[in-house]
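thread: overnight batch results

M.L. [08:02]
morning all. the overnight job finished for the chain we discussed friday. pasting input first so we're all looking at the same thing
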Amino acid sequence: MKILVINPVGTPIWDELTLKHLKQIANPGTEVVVKSLPQGPESIESEFDKALAEKHVMGVVARELLGSREGEYDAVMINCFDDPGVKALREVMRDALVLGIGETSITAALMLGFSIAIISTGKESKAIYRRRAAELGLLDRVVYTGGIEVPVLKLREDETATLKALEKEGRRAVEEYGAEVIVLGCGGMIGMAQELSRRVGVPVVDPTITTFKVTEALVASGLKHSYVHAPPHAIKRFQALLSNGV
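M.L. [08:03]
and the structure it wrote out:
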């Protein structure tokens, strides 16, 4: 099994950290390749950032599938909670599963408790992930959305301070809003879920690690996306990207 993990930002600072954690939990025989974007926003903290990143995500996937490597990957995983490019890639990828850490981790959280909280970065996250809950039809299940006042690019500068901020938000979600499960809303928080769970007393979903294990399970089960309503012209345009070496 071979899984392509894309950090959809124009900086490689997350690649080594992501690879380290995923190798620790990967099944024997699973090969993990982590790539960031050659250009694009350094972080995704708005719809505008997401839109800027999506075209570059298409380009990275196209380059990885060029020539003899086409069909080599069993799955593509987008390591950003906003899932940039996931819907577009699902329209055109026939041989590989495509998952994003946002949709997948929220879905997994539904199996762990009824009331879900999403905690990301920035106060704007409250509105952004409230909309996301509505898009997924989960407004009755997502009881709290919020963000810590630590920018994405500074999450690992002082991990003690980051965890303290997450704990404060987590306790608020549990004690004031009745959250039974917390989903961390950023791939940059990888590896922090277990300690946060210990502090706040509820399951905490690490979106990157959870999505990776779900990806392995779905690939091993032989499951892929349905393409009943995929537009044929999108496939042709993606094939043009492949042939042009974008």
